[in-house]
Amino acid sequence: MEKKSLGRGLDDISDIFLSTRKDKQEDKNKLGGFSSDSDNTEIKCEIEEDVIVRKNIAYPNTPYAQQDILKSLSKHLEENYSVKRIELRKTDRISQPGIKKSIEERIAIYIYGGTTRL
Description:
The chain is an alpha+beta fold. The chain is 35% helix and 20% strand. It has helices at 10-32, 36-39, 65-78; strands at 85-96, 99-110. The relative contact order is 0.07.
């Protein structure tokens, strides 16, 4: 009876794996000059990441819009958001025969100075 060959011997297979490992190491050395010792060392660094998310919350002009805004403000304050600036507007319209007058008053309430976060 004939012995059937699997095609490659153990030596051939181990050479394939070893040459693949050597090729990968050579590629690393070409890219960044890493040695096998430096692959095992841990780089000690400090990472600081700032992410800013900006949201615009708009309410339709309904009779209850101001109450909805106040509820939203209260909810966000309870979730540890802080108030940096509030803008208020008041418009008085006076209409008399022959005279139309509109008075707009704007008030800005804000925190100034320093960059301390609460």
